[in-house]
Amino acid sequence: MAKTKQAAVQKMGELFKKVEEVKQRFEVASQKALEEAEVLKQEIHEEETEVQELYTMYVLDEIVLETYQEAKDKLDDKKKLLAVAEGKVADMDDLKKDELSKLYHQITELMDDYRKEDNHNIAFQRKRVLQAKADYLNFIHEAQKEMTATYKFTSKLGDLKVDLGLMDYNHYSSHKPVYALFNNDYNRTPGFDVTREEVESAYYKGLVDPKTLEEIK
Questions:
Q1: What is the C-alpha separation between 85 and 35, in angstroms, rounded?
Q2: Rounded CA gap, 136 and 123, in Å?
Q3: What's CA 138's distance to the chain center, in Å?
Q4: Distance (Å, rounded) from C-alpha 209 to C-alpha 190?
Q5: Buried b (16+ CB within 10 A) or exposed e, 120-148
Q6: Is 162 within 8 Å of 155 (Cβ atoms)?
Q7: Which position among 14, 63, 183, 204 has the lowest Cβ density within 10 Å, counted as fewest Cβ atoms?
Q8: CB 158 within 8 A of CB 172
Q9: Quick check: 191 and 181 in contact, CB under 8 A?
Q10: 3-state SS, residue 164
Q11: 35-73 residue pLDDT tens
Q12: Phi, psi (5° rounding) for residue 189?
């Protein structure tokens, strides 16, 4: 099975990259607007106290009206800026959804082609994995031939001892060398059988059981 060019997958990657960029832009903008609002709130709090004091001084004829009015106008301007900053924060979610909706529309237009490419790729990789499984099982058979080439004499010796009356039965034949290849539950040494956990660890993390690696050093 030849692997085809994944045009829709590539476009999907580009679109989701834009999705992350939009999220990042709005996250930065939202954080900045919140910080601006906090600074303005602090300044307004301080200036409100100052304006109140100036108003008291104005009432007591200790300052002229213009001095008080100038401070009050400055305070009012900052309150307007705060309203704008808080409005930005309030509008941020709707604006972000609008931008993401545009990208979502483009993504949905790709879905048919994307699913074809995704299904094709999964089938392609499945075939590769099953080929590796077949090769693995064939290799086990070849290993059996090599192991039998040496072990057969142990078994033959058992048969000879039975013939000579030295043993009642050939117990060597029950201890097949294949057993040495399986996982050993007693001493926890690995074997050629592969567990679901090992498959998932390899699939998700690219990891091989350290005990297996230790065995093949």
A1: 9
A2: 20
A3: 35
A4: 8
A5: beeeeeeeeeeeeeeeeeeeeeeeeeeee
A6: no
A7: 204
A8: yes
A9: yes
A10: coil
A11: 989 999 999 999 999 999 998 998 998 899 999 999 999
A12: -80, 145
